[in-house]
Design goal:
The chain is an alpha+beta fold and 204 residues long. The chain has five helices and ten strands; from the N terminus they run ααβαβββαββββαββ. The strands form two sheets. It has a six-stranded mixed β-sheet with strand order 1-2-3-5-6-10, sandwiched between helices. Strands 4, 7, 8 and 9 form a four-stranded antiparallel β-sheet that branches. Helix 1 crosses helix 2. The C terminus is likely disordered.
Length: 204
């Protein structure tokens, strides 16, 4: 790695921890990626017209380059009193527009301390009132080592990863990186009386 790249990573590590963790994760698992420069001078006018949001990364399945994902990373300091991570509806709407515009699924990555958790947009839960979506967090399981028990983890993450990736700790469903490229399960539409169509999730 050249010196310029090393300096950039130091900058990311100090100010954008989540993006640094994501780069670390992708490199460790040999996942090809592009990291998007985030400034208004490099923002596509067409995407702006579509009210889309520029994601932080584009990644490809190393075993099938036709499978790509867009990734938006969020840094979070979860307080002890918190039980959820809230995401503003307008931001999710913009990411959905980006997803529809490019025809590429978008993933959200949450960085909490030294841990990184990925979820699909479709996995976000919606509050009954208000304009926020959220994911549930919970303390690390009690059988984990003491310093980890106080760590908050995303309950239903698609992939979870400890930055060092050297322990045998397994969060949630595991840390198989190729789950990032799995398609979401297709659920059968529920039967609705009177022939009415089931409600669509597209408006979330």
């Amino acid at each position: 790695m050249n010196e310029a790249a090393t300096d950039q990573r130091k900058m990311l590590a100090s100010g954008y921890v989540g993006e640094f963790l994501a780069m670390d994760f992708f490199d460790k698992h040999r996942i090809p990626y592009l990291h998007t420069e985030q400034n208004r001078h490099t923002f596509s006018r067409r995407l702006a017209d579509e009210k889309g949001k520029r994601p932080d990364f584009m990644i490809w399945d190393p075993n099938d380059r036709s499978r790509a994902r867009l990734v938006e990373i969020k840094n979070h300091d979860v307080m002890v009193t918190d039980k959820v991570i809230n995401i503003d509806q307008s931001e999710v709407t913009a990411l959905r527009k980006t997803q529809d515009f490019f025809g590429i699924p978008v993933l959200l990555g949450f960085a909490i301390g030294e841990y990184l958790f990925f979820v699909r947009l479709e996995d976000l839960q919606k509050r009954l009132l208000g304009q926020q979506l959220y994911v549930t967090v919970e303390p690390g399981p009690p059988h984990h080592r003491p310093e980890l028990q106080a760590k908050w983890v995303v309950k239903d993450a698609l992939v979870s990863w400890e930055r060092t990736d050297v322990s045998d700790i397994i969060f949630n469903k595991g840390r198989d990186p190729f789950r990032l490229f799995e398609d979401p399960p297709v659920s059968a539409p529920a039967a609705v009386q009177g022939g009415a169509s089931p409600p669509s999730a597209a408006g979330l």
